[in-house]
Design goal:
Elements: H1 3-6, H2 15-28, H3 41-44, E1 69-73, H4 80-91, E2 95-97, H5 98-107, H6 113-121, H7 128-144, E3 150-153, H8 159-168, E4 173-178, H9 181-190, E5 191-194, E6 200-202, E7 206-208, E8 217-219, H10 226-229, E9 232-233, H11 240-263, E10 267-271, H12 276-286, H13 290-299
Parallel strand pairs: 1-3, 1-4, 2-3, 4-10
Antiparallel strand pairs: 5-6, 5-9, 7-8
Helix pairs in contact: 2-7, 2-8, 5-6, 5-7
The chain binds adenosine monophosphate.
Length: about 300
C-alpha cells in the first residue's frame, strides 16, 4: 500500500484552507513574540506528539495513524534538507523547503529576483510577507495536485512565522537537528548542488576529534553520480563570511522558534551522531519509524 494512504491526515484543516488562510492571516498576525492565543488549536487541545529525546516505548505512537504536518528546525548546514527529503519519500508527503522557493524565485528573473538576491547573498532573512507569499503559492499548487501533509524545512524561521503557521493549521511534530558549529561550517563550505537535477551533495570529508566531553564526529563526503559531477555549483551564500552571518541570525531569530515548540511539547531534539549511514537509522528509531521503513521496503 502506498505510504501516503497509510497516513491519516483527514482530521486536520485541509491544506487548501491552510494555504489560502496563510496569506489572509499574515495581515492580522501578531507582531509581538507573545505566546499563542488561547483560541489557537494547539493550546486548546493536547499535542498529538510529546516527544522527548528518548521516548519510552509506551509513548511511541503507531506511525500508520499519524498526521504528517511536520517541521524541521536546525542551523544552516545541519542536514534538514537531506533528512526531510528522505522522510518525505518514506511517508509520501511533500518536502517543502522555503530556501528552495526563494532560490527558484531568484533564478526566475521575476520582479522580486534582484531584491531577494541581495538579501540572500548577505545571509539575511527575507521578509515574512514575501516568504508567506511564496509558501502560500507552493501549498496551493500542491493542493491542486492532490498533495496532503507536508514536511517544512526552513520555515518557520522566526517566532512570528511560527505564530502565523499556528493560526492556520496544526503542526504535529517538530524535529530539531543539532550538530557542532565547527562541523556546520565545514558542511556548508562542502555543499554542492547539481545545476541540472537540483540534488544536494557534499564534498567535505569530516573527521573531528572529541574534546571537552563532546564526542568526535566523522562524515564521509556525499558524492554525486558521474552524470552530475560536471554540473556541480556552490550556493552563493555558502561562503565562510555569509555562513557566519547566517549562523548569527539563526541564534538570534530562529532559536526562539525551538522554545516556541518546546513549550508545546512538540519538539524532538536530535543530535546527529555522524553521516547519513549512522544518523538515518537512529532518526527513524527516534521517530518510531524503524519498523515502518522495513515494512515499506518489504512491500516495494
Ligand atoms: P536555506 O536554503 O533554508 O538556507 O535558505 C536560504 C535563504 O532563503 C535564507 O538565508 C533566507 O535568506 C531565505 N529564507 C529561506 N527560508 C526563509 C524563511 N522562512 N524566512 C526568511 N527567509 C528565508
Amino acid at each position: 500500500m502506498a505510504a501516503a494512504a497509510l497516513i491519516r491526515l483527514s482530521s486536520k484543516p485541509s491544506l487548501s484552507s491552510a494555504a489560502s488562510r496563510v496569506a489572509r492571516c499574515f495581515a492580522s498576525a501578531p507582531t509581538s513574540q507573545a505566546a499563542p492565543s488561547s483560541s489557537s488549536p494547539s493550546s486548546s487541545s493536547p499535542p498529538l506528539f510529546a516527544f522527548s529525546a528518548n521516548p519510552s516505548p509506551a509513548r511511541r505512537e503507531d506511525p500508520e495513524a499519524r498526521n504528517v504536518q511536520w517541521v524541521f528546525l536546525g542551523c544552516p548546514g545541519v542536514g534538514k534538507g537531506t533528512y526531510a527529503s528522505r522522510l518525505s519519500v518514506l511517508l509520501g508527503v511533500p518536502h517543502i523547503a522555503t530556501g528552495d522557493l526563494v532560490r527558484e524565485e531568484l533564478s526566475s528573473s521575476g520582479p522580486l529576483s534582484l531584491q531577494l538576491k541581495e538579501i540572500v547573498n548577505q545571509g539575511q532573512l527575507v521578509s515574512d510577507e514575501i516568504i508567506i507569499r511564496l509558501l502560500s503559492k507552493r501549498l496551493e499548487a500542491g493542493e491542486a495536485k492532490g498533495e496532503s501533509g507536508f514536511i517544512l524545512d526552513g520555515f518557520p524561521r522566526t517566532t512570528k512565522q511560527a505564530e502565523i503557521l499556528e493560526g492556520v493549521t496544526e503542526i504535529d511534530l517538530v524535529v530539531n537537528l543539532k550538530l557542532r558549529e565547527d562541523v556546520l561550517m565545514e558542511k556548508c563550505l562542502g555543499r554542492r548542488i547539481c545545476s541540472q537535477c537540483g540534488k544536494n551533495f557534499n564534498v567535505a570529508s569530516i573527521n573531528v576529534k572529541g574534546e571537552n566531553g563532546n564526542p568526535g564526529i566523522s562524515m564521509d563526503p556525499l558524492l554525486p553520480p558521474p552524470h552530475c559531477m560536471t554540473k556541480l555549483i556552490t550556493r552563493s551564500d555558502d561562503t565562510e563570511e555569509v555562513v557566519k552571518e547566517r549562523l548569527k541570525i539563526y541564534y538570534e531569530k530562529s532559536q526562539p522558534v525551538e522554545d516556541f515548540y518546546r513549550r508545546q511539547g512538540k519538539l524532538l531534539e536530535f543530535d546527529l551522531p555522524g553521516g547519513i549511514p549512522e544518523s538515518w537509522p537512529k532518526l527513524l528509531e527516534a521517530l518510531n519509524l524503524d519498523d515502518y521503513e522495513e515494512k515499506q521496503s518489504a512491500a516495494a
